[in-house]
Specification:
The chain is globular. Helix content is 82%, strand content 0%. The longest helix is centred in the middle third of the chain and has 29 residues. The protein has one domain.
């Protein structure tokens, strides 16, 4: 497999996983919002958030390896950028916007290309 093809597969994989898990992400966002008002949720929400950040970091590192370039932002920044895209896509999906998933699939490669300066 060529490097370009591997990079494309890595980008596509992260987009598809997030689209497939819209329902899970919705529940996590609800818990996250509730944790702002109730202390009992905070530890769990922070653990879930840490796990999501690590998963995204793993993808960014792999993409950077395939691009033979370093990630241009710290792990937490990459997570915030990509997770923001996922949250926007989820909100658009919940609002009934037909192109929400497709928009996410277009945005992830563009953001990954900026995170990893090839």
């Amino acid at each position: 497999m060529q490097v370009t093809e591997a990079k494309e597969r890595t980008r596509d994989r992260i987009s598809r996983r997030q689209v497939d898990k819209f329902a899970d992400r919705r529940a996590q966002l609800a818990e996250s919002a509730q944790s702002l008002f109730e202390d009992s949720f905070r530890a769990d929400v922070l653990e879930i958030d840490r796990h999501r950040e690590e998963m995204i970091h793993h993808v960014v590192v792999r993409y950077a390896e395939l691009a033979s370039a370093p990630a241009g932002v710290p792990q937490a920044v990459a997570y915030a950028m990509l997770d923001g895209l996922f949250q926007q896509a989820l909100l658009r999906h919940l609002a009934g916007e037909d192109g929400a998933a497709a928009g996410l699939e277009r945005a992830v490669p563009a953001v990954l290309a900026r995170i990893v300066a090839a």
